[in-house]
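Section handout 9: paired folding examples.
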Amino acid sequence: MIEVVGIRFKKAGKIYYFDPDGQTIEAGSYAIVETARGVEYGSVIKGNMLVPDEDVVLPLKKVIRVATDEDTALAAENKIKENEAFEVCLEKISKHQLDMKLIDVEITFDHNKLIFYFTSDGRVDFRELVKELAAIFRTRIELRQIGVRDEAKMLNGIGICGRPLCCATFLGDFHPVSIKMAKEQSLSLNPTKISGICGRLMCCLKYEEDVYEELNKKLPNVGDIISTPDGNGEILSTNVLMQVVKAAVRKTENDAPTIGFYAVDEIKVIKRKKKAKQDEAEKELEKLLGDKYDD
């Protein structure tokens, strides 16, 4: 086991582990640490704790110190400088007529580097832009192209559920989301209904996927022939969460079918329906969604 503290540098950002170096650091405080980008000011999310060796990437960087009032004041000043740098960069992008959208600006705590995040549909030749920015700010300049999901995380917004975006409020990492998850949950494959404001599949499809996978294992498929307390019948639809099937049942072969609802433990599958080939339109839709959204 290794003693660590968990520190986050952005709201809803990833939590990184650092060596407390003999210091007792409480959650909710701030700390100055050394990172690959330089010295940074971060929020302590997890105080001193022991974690298994396999959960950390060695060697761990050490916490330099618990943040002082002067450090906090400097971090606030850096936020103002970031806003100023944002406006300057926007002006220069317009001057050079570059096809790029500036999203955010970060300055490292020690002013060693200024990072500009942007999105673009293609490659951008920003060499002249970098030269001008370096001449103005007199520090190392990095322009980093990000994806649409990262853009949504940085900018935040309101999802179709009416709540702030999950990625911007509590999701530390993006998890792979696929069309299979939407199908498992019997959701419409209409792109406008299952994609977030970033244009990619909604992250929340992942939340209940494990439960749906487990429940679907217990359910037969639509079209299967089953035996029920009222006779044999064919499944018309299923309710995954209720674990109930709707079936057209005949008490005898000569009787007219009646519609009934049965719990999964009341039925037994007699014959499984062969999986039909997908409708061409459905295949095209799945291909479109898969190509566009699968991670």
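Moving on to protein 2 of 2.
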Amino acid sequence: MGKYDKLLFQILRGTSGANIGFDDLCQLLLRLGFEECRRGSHHTFRKEGIEEKINL
């Protein structure tokens, strides 16, 4: 199991809390097919077929 597979498992299991690094979370979303848009300090992620956007 790779690094991002483990990270996704922790997130879905609900045991990671604040222990997720910002860069790791961004990389995970990109690997899951999300597109990133940066505006200042805000990073938004969108994916076709998913109505809600993720704003970090």
